[in-house]
Amino acid sequence: MDAVMLVGGQGTRLRPLTMSAPKPMLPVAGVPVTAHMLARARDAGITRVVLATSYRAEVFEEHFGDGSGHGLELEYVTETEPLGTGGAIRNVASRLRSGADEPVVIFNGDILSGLDIGALVERHITADAAVTLHLTRVEDPRAFGVVPTDPAGRVTAFLEKTPDPPTNLINAGCYVFRRSLIDTIPAGRPVSVERETFPSLLAAGVPVVGYPDDTYWLDLGTPAAFVLGSRDLVTGRMPSSALPGPVGDRLVLPGSTVATDAKIGGGSTIGAGASVGTGARIDGSVLFDRASVGAGAYVRDSVVGREAVIGNGVVLENVVIGDGAVIEPGNELRAGARVFPGAVLGAGAVRFSSDRA
Asked: pLDDT, tens digit, for every residue of 246-300?
């Protein structure tokens, strides 16, 4: 069985983190989010994955190679121009080895999910579906497109955001396609499976089936979600065999230096080669590799980029610090502030900010 992982998104909502790496390659709990989802594919018995790449495509192959180190066979297909979800799937069709009636699993590489992939495929086969969609329940579906189903589980509509949605089931971004169906997606142009492919299948009476599931699911599209996903992996709420250390209240990667009186918790990750000074507190945050946090600093619910320098006594709450940025002593940043790569905030330049520097 083939699988396709869609990893072409730019992750604009996560800037400045994605100015140096595509969203699926950002380190979540110590390894790229793509590594966590590849591990779930491998653990489900999938042996070959085609990665549909676009933005900064080269970094995927540089990191994962042929996949042998991850127990998989990996192949890479790069879009020369953005093709959308459906177009990206169609673009890899020539690399798939599955027979016409065999299932192909499609993942989004920037979503954390505890989905039982084997159960999704089994549902697809027993229902004799053309496409089976993983559906997840959300508390407030008004912010999403919803996917109502009939009593037999067949999808009846794809509805855009509405003030009065008929269901709280949304498209969770993982699908099983009948291999032959992929060849019917128009080639060489942008196609959205959500807005074009799936609605046209329903209009033609083709069987599209939903698979509701209540396991862990999180789109890592915003800084707050990124931090939450990393915490949930570290603490074990979202299981992953790719986690580079034991489950616990913190993950401290090899090569880092942490002062004996520093307090680190809340599912924080301290990247390789990072340093945390005496009396510093790191709570529910992510420090990328070689980041430095000075003595007495306080970092909460935040992301600190690679080689960024956080000065003594600096306070960061719910902020994103880009790679190589320098925050000198006397600064306090809160409420969604974002500091772009390489920026330098002088001593006492900012006391409170929701702006971008």
From this structure: 999 999 999 999 999 999 999 999 999 999 999 999 999 999 999 999 999 999 9
Domains and CATH numbers, the chain: 2-219 (3.90.550.10), 249-345 (2.160.10.10)
CB 156 within 8 A of CB 148: yes
HSE-up of 229 (CA within 13 Å, CB side)? 29
User: Which pLDDT value is given to residue 298?
Assistant: 97
Give this prediction's pTM. 0.90
Through-space distance between the first and last CA atoms of the chain, rounded to whole angstroms: 47
Is the pLDDT at 356 greater than 70? The verdict is no
The 10s digit of each residue's pLDDT in 167-194 is 999 989 899 999 999 999 999 899 998 8
From the number of C-beta atoms within 10 Å of its C-beta (0-12, 13-18, 19+), residue 227 rates as: buried
Please list the residues that pair with 64 across neighbouring strands: none
